[in-house]
Write a structure and sequence with these properties.
Number of domains: 1
Helix content: 10-25%
Low-confidence stretches: 1-39, 141-153, 245-280
Strand order of the largest sheet: 7-8-9-10-11-1-2-3-4-5-6-12
CATH architecture: Clam
Largest sheet: 12 strands, mixed
Structural class: alpha+beta
Radius of gyration: 22 Å
Distance between the termini: 42 Å
Number of helices: 5
Mean pLDDT: 73
Strand content: 35-45%
Shape: globular
Number of strands: 12
CATH class: Mainly Beta
CATH topology: outer membrane lipoprotein receptor (LolB), chain A
């Protein structure tokens, strides 16, 4: 259900995403109604009692109870920008993942609505579509499902240091640093003093620093069009990571659910793999 993306620095992803969404992962694991669906919040400060700082606790609670948000993460070292949207509608968990290179060139666009996944094919501007039921997930994919945040993120060596209060856009934010001997680097994060929601953060170490901005307005994740079905026997996860050349020139769409023949590719007689590509 959660995206399985190729991160350039897994440690940074863990620090940024896990702590921002730790409470949310717990809510999805525990089941039950969610804020915006029920009058009773599923996360309270008691769930985050391992955090001594009262303001940070309020931030974790606010973030855990948030049912829609947008993040924009810039990785200067990788030359990539990631935009991710999350929206909960009833029992449905929806998200959008867009990646850009060189600032504004879109290179990947994935939408998840419930059990249905859409991946944009830039060859024809259509969207690959596939519905995957939980029972169809591989064991490897099941092993990547989130677990209780208390077990994963209640680290006794996790430290939060208040830095200052300062302007962040039109709001005033608390600025904190988060460190841990077991996690390389430092996470600096800002959350507003009104709703206690994250507004921005920086995390990483050395040249691997990511900068993330948070927003919560005008999020509406819906099914795209036009779509085309993934060929029988294929997985949409292949297309998710090969969006630049997903459609062979002689691709044929399936007809009446019949298997699609494998396209024929003619290899030139004088074709030769350069020795340097063989590691010689």
């Amino acid at each position: 259900m959660f995206q399985k993306d190729k991160g350039f620095a897994p440690v940074i992803i863990v620090v940024v995403v896990a702590l921002a969404l730790g409470g949310f992962l717990f809510l999805k694991k525990s089941g039950g109604s969610l804020p915006g669906i029920s009058q009773t919040p599923r996360a309270t400060e008691k769930d985050f009692e391992f955090i001594e700082d009262a303001n940070v606790r309020k931030n974790f609670v606010a973030q855990a109870n948030q049912t829609s948000y947008r993040t924009k993460t810039v990785s200067e070292a990788a030359g990539l920008t990631f935009v991710n949207e999350v929206q909960i509608k009833g029992e449905e968990f929806n998200y959008r993942d867009v990646q850009y290179e060189s600032g504004d060139k879109e290179i990947k666009h994935t939408i998840n609505i419930g059990d249905t996944i859409y991946v944009k094919d830039y060859a024809d501007s259509k969207w690959w579509k596939q519905t995957i039921k939980p029972e169809e997930l591989t064991q490897e994919e099941k092993d990547q499902e989130p677990v209780d945040f208390k077990e994963e993120f209640s680290q006794p060596d996790l430290k939060f240091k208040f830095i200052t209060k300062e302007a962040c856009g039109n709001l005033t934010c608390f600025k904190y640093e988060q460190t841990s001997p077991s996690i390389p680097g430092t996470r600096t994060f800002w959350f507003d003093d009104k709703d206690y929601l994250l507004r921005k953060e920086e995390a990483g170490y050395g040249e691997f620093i990511t900068r993330t901005e948070y927003s919560y307005d005008k999020i509406n994740i819906s099914a795209p069009s036009p779509t085309k079905d993934v060929p029988e026997g294929k997985s949409i996860y292949y297309y998710e990571f090969n969006t630049q050349s997903t459609t062979p020139t002689n691709y044929q769409a399936p007809v009446n659910n019949q298997p699609v023949p494998t396209p024929d590719y003619e290899i030139p007689q004088d074709f030769e793999i350069p020795q340097e590509d063989l590691g010689y």
